[in-house]
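Fold this sequence, please.
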Amino acid sequence: MKIKYFSDTSTALVEFSDSKVAETKEINENIYIDLDTAGNLVAMTIEHARKQASLPHFSYKQIENELPNKSLQRTAKGRR
């Protein structure tokens, strides 16, 4: 994934893949998504991103797969 910010236009471009864009859909007047021929998300454009997406406060966190804690497992088994 690549994130590009164009400060001159306050536009953010989030690229999810290098696939060729087949269609662009307008989500609202400031957000557009690009799709490939299979309908998969290729990119998202956010206009006025500084205001729309609070870009000065960007952070990234990867969440790993974890097993649910034991109390949740017991609860789920007890309901069956």
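The beta strands are 2-6, 11-15, 23-28, 31-35, 41-46. The chain has a mean pLDDT of 82.
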